[in-house]
Amino acid sequence: MAFQLIERNTVAVTIKGILNDATTGQPQPFDFVLHCQRMDVPALQAALANKERSVRDFLQSVAQGWAGVQGMDGSTLPFSPEAFEQMLNLPGLEQLAFDAYLAQQGARAKN
């Protein structure tokens, strides 16, 4: 397949992990897609070099939407800054999302 040199301003980042069930304590796998702004190398380097900016601040600046996120009743939960903030309050999820963004927002080798 040929490479098309086009501007790709967004990226769908797949986030996978495990959370223990609140009632049973059993590990439950989860996955969802975070739709983010894709950054070019200079912009990403500048963002990562800013030591006054937290990982959370960075994620909040690039996140634009999501797919596969449900509310407590099982219905689709629409993306909002407040809902994303609530998600980031889950221990470990902030770093999981950050690592997934860094790994998936650029080109990588095909397996």
Reported for the largest beta sheet, the result is: 3 strands, antiparallel
Order of strands across the main sheet: 1-2-3
N-end to C-end Cα span: 15 Å
Which series of helices and strands comes N to C? EEHHEHH
Helix/strand/pairing category: alpha+beta
Enumerate the spans where pLDDT stays under 50 for 5 or more consecutive residues.
Answer: none
The amount of helix comes to 25-40%
- What is the number of helical segments per DSSP (H or I, 4+ residues)? 4
What share of the residues does DSSP label as strand, in percent?
15-25%
Rg over C-alpha atoms, rounded to the nearest angstrom: 16 Å
Shape: globular
Query: What is the number of beta strands?
Result: 3
Q: Mean pLDDT across all residues, rounded?
A: 90
Walk me through this protein's architecture.
The chain is α+β, with helices and mostly antiparallel strands. It is built from 4 helices and 3 strands; from the N terminus they run ββααβαα. It has helices at residues 41-49, 55-62, 81-88, 93-104, and strands at 10-20, 27-37, 63-67. It has a 3-stranded antiparallel beta sheet. α2 (55-62) packs across α4 (93-104). The longest helix is centred in the C-terminal third of the chain and has 12 residues, at 93-104. The chain is globular. The model has no long low-confidence stretch (mean pLDDT 90).
